[in-house]
Design a protein that fits this description.
The structure is a single chain. The chain is built from 1 helix and 66 strands. By secondary structure, it is mainly β. The strands form 21 sheets. It has a 7-stranded mixed sheet, with no helix packed on it.
Length: 725
């Protein structure tokens, strides 16, 4: 009961609350306080751009970007944004909404205000400064002029332009400007402008000065020539107070013609102002004439060198117009009347003059030549044989022709193109190095002419190298049929690419050689010694071995299976004997074993065979030597012949019964061959007796006889002969 009351109270309270809310909402709706739906409005003020002109700018434009006013409602919009200087300001906006009765119902709307921008952009203006130039005069160059080349300032504002740039010295610099824009209150409003300055140039050019230099001449004497005299050409002068002087002059020593160029300097007191002048120097010439000298070769000796030219010292002729300068030396290349040892006329082909420092000063001379003489003396050389080799031949070289060369101890070499031919003697016989002594020496030039007399020849010993004599030793081949013996071949053949393989009277002896006994092939490897009168000289030979071939061939042997002939006995006949054919015997004391198979029972012939691979052959020591034989097998024969028997009908009798008496029973009367055990014999007979009495009972000739065993055997195994009564 308590629970029901509590529920009733809760439900009643909810009903009363809901009714109260509905009444309030109805009142708002009735009096315009609440709309039946939520409304969102978006108001946007204008965005505008302005070029700076000194005035404040704004825009009262706006628009309802989103949403819609309800019927009877009006909006009062106020836009108050303003911007004068360069930059961006917000275009402020405010809104009040009224109903038809003029009541402010703004709060009944969800309103968003979006402010636009008032943008003031810099005012462009372009200033151009004036360019100017002048020739250097020691005073500064400037130009304060300028102009507005594009744009203008805002009303009531003005340009405050200063041009502080100046230039005095030679060169180019910018005529830079400092630009300030001010308003009527002298305030700097330059930041509201986009100022471009096109800068002119200030150019100071050098003063042009032209001078003329004087000329001067002389004959080459090794001393410098210069001339510092000059004059300013008409119409040119230095700035007042400036002094022009020679800083350096062109100084020449060598023969030739040169422009007389002076380097000038201009000073203003102690200050060098040369850079402010453009000085052009022209006019004068410095000329040094070549020194005329007649030279003659100085008589001198020269070492023979096989040529027709020589380098000598030349001296000035006594009656020469001018001598060589002190310390100058003339070297001359002369052409000789002969190249051999002796006195020659020397004609100068070219000459060179050098000063005391070795510098070539020939171009300063005008040389003329006169012939002289040169004495050629023998060329001292020490010669030795070039190291030479020979292949060992068992004899010493008493004399041998070889080429020579200058020894390392020689002061002079052999003239290029000349050949030294020597005969030498040496005692070296065996392989190794020995001394070779010169017997005679001849020197020839490239044309083959003997020029030995142009040399002063001394001798030095050389070296001979005796090298090992190459020979090829080839061992003999050998081939044998296996006989169980050890075989070898100790013969050999000696060859050489140098003619006779061995030196005269040398002999070769085989020291070791290979041996072979069993079937196969083997290299016949040998070693030898070479002797001269029983003394080994093999160290003087370079021996190359070529091995021959030793071969043992298999011994042919024929193993024959035994043969047998046997009279039929009813038993299986086998024969296990075999033998070696006399035509292909085994090695002495060798034996063999073989497996023979084959058998026969009945009359006829069949092969008695040796099983392939069953033959084993042994030597005297019972070692298996089968592989040394080439085995051929020959079959034997097992032959079974008919068994000879002699048959006789047996006698028969009976009491008369009216029936014929016959008898086919027989007996063997052969004394040596009986019927095989278990065999019986019957025969077709001729006898028949019915009446009382006797008659002859004979076996039918040519057949009708039968031999039986149990079961009856074939009669073909018997050679039957029939007799009897």
């Amino acid at each position: 009961m308590g629970k029901s009351k509590k529920t009733l109270y809760v439900v009643s309270s909810l009903v009363i609350g809901v009714c109260s809310v509905l009444l309030v909402l109805f009142g708002f709706i009735l009096f315009g306080g609440v709309n039946d739906s939520s409304v969102d409005l978006v108001f946007v003020s204008d965005t505008r751009d302005f070029i700076y002109d000194g005035y404040a700018h704004g825009s009262d434009g706006w628009q309802l970007a989103e949403g819609k006013l309800r019927k009877g409602h009006t909006a009062k919009v106020k836009v108050t944004g303003s911007q004068r200087d360069v930059g961006t300001g917000k275009n402020a906006i405010s809104v009040v909404i009224y109903d038809k009765n003029g009541n402010d119902i703004t709060e009944t709307y969800n309103i968003e205000l979006r402010e636009g921008n008032i943008n003031v952009l810099p005012r462009p203006i372009e200033i151009t400064t004036v360019s100017d130039e002048k020739i250097f005069d020691g005073y500064p160059l400037y130009n304060r002029n300028w102009d507005v080349s594009n744009g203008r300032v805002a009303d009531g504002q003005y340009l405050d332009v200063s041009l502080p740039a100046e230039r005095t010295e030679i060169g180019v610099s910018k005529n830079a400007a400092i630009v300030i824009i001010r308003d009527s209150n002298y305030e700097d409003v330059s930041e509201n402008y986009d100022i471009t300055v096109i800068t002119g140039e200030l150019t100071v050019k050098p003063i042009p000065v032209e001078i003329s230099t004087k000329s001067m001449f002389k004959v080459y004497d090794g001393e410098p020539l210069d001339c510092k005299e000059f004059k300013l050409d008409a119409g040119y002068a230095a700035v007042k107070g400036h002094t022009v002087s020679v800083k350096s002059a062109n100084s020449v020593t060598e023969a030739g013609s040169y422009d007389n160029i002076l380097t000038l300097s201009v000073t203003d007191g102690d200050r060098d102002v040369t850079g402010n002048y453009s000085i052009v120097c022209s006019g004068g010439t410095l000329k040094i004439n070549r020194r005329a000298v007649t030279v003659i070769p100085e008589t001198a000796e020269r070492i023979y060198d096989g040529t027709l030219t020589a380098s000598v010292t030349a001296v000035a002729l006594k009656n020469s117009a001018l001598p060589l300068l002190s310390g100058h030396i003339a070297g001359a290349i002369v052409v000789l009347s002969q190249s051999d040892v002796g006195e020659s006329i020397a004609e100068i082909s070219s000459a060179t003059v050098k000063d005391e420092n070795g510098k070539d000063v020939s171009k300063n001379y005008n040389l003329t030549y006169q012939s002289g003489k040169v004495i050629t003396v023998a060329r001292p050389v020490t010669v030795r044989p070039k190291t030479f080799e020979k292949i060992y031949d068992g004899v010493a070289e008493v004399t041998k022709s070889v080429l020579g060369e200058a020894d390392s101890s020689s002061d002079y070499s052999i003239v290029t193109g000349h050949t030294v031919s020597l005969t030498v003697a040496t005692a070296q016989i065996n392989v190794g190095s020995g001394v070779a002594n010169i017997v005679t020496a001849t020197i020839t030039d490239a044309g083959g002419r003997d020029v030995t007399n142009n040399y002063e020849v001394s001798h030095a010993s050389g070296t001979i190298k005796v090298t090992r004599r190459p020979v090829t030793v080839t061992s003999n081949d050998g081939s044998w049929v296996y006989d169980g013996e050890v075989h070898s071949e100790d013969g050999c053949k000696v060859e050489s690419e140098y003619g006779e393989a061995l030196v005269l009277n040398h002999k070769i002896t085989v020291l070791t050689y290979s041996e072979i006994t069993d079937f196969g092939k083997k290299s016949n490897s040998i070693t030898v010694d070479i002797v001269d009168d029983d003394v080994s000289v093999i160290s003087n030979y370079l021996v190359t071995y070529k091995n021959g071939l030793l071969e043992i061939k298999r011994r042919p042997v024929t193993v024959v299976a035994g043969s047998i002939e046997w009279v039929y006995s009813g038993y299986e006949v086998a024969y296990f004997n075999s033998f070696i054919s006399e035509e292909t015997p085994l090695v002495k004391n060798h034996s063999y074993g073989a497996k023979v198979y084959g058998s026969r029972i009945d009359v006829g012939e069949s092969a008695n065979k040796i099983e392939a691979g069953s033959v084993i052959i042994y030597n005297a020591q019972f070692n298996d030597v089968t592989d040394n034989y080439e085995i051929t097998y020959h079959d034997g024969v097992i032959k079974i012949t008919k068994r000879p028997v002699k048959l006789k009908p047996v006698n028969a009798n009976k009491k008369y019964d009216g029936k014929p008496l016959t008898c086919t029973d027989v007996e063997n009367i052969q004394q040596f061959y009986t019927l095989v055990e278990g065999h019986t014999a019957t025969a077709e007979t001729t006898g028949s007796q019915t009446e009382i009495g006797r008659c002859e009972n004979s076996i039918v000739a040519g057949g009708g006889k039968k031999l039986f065993k149990k079961p009856p055997p074939p009669t073909r195994h018997y050679n039957r002969e029939g007799i009897g009564t």
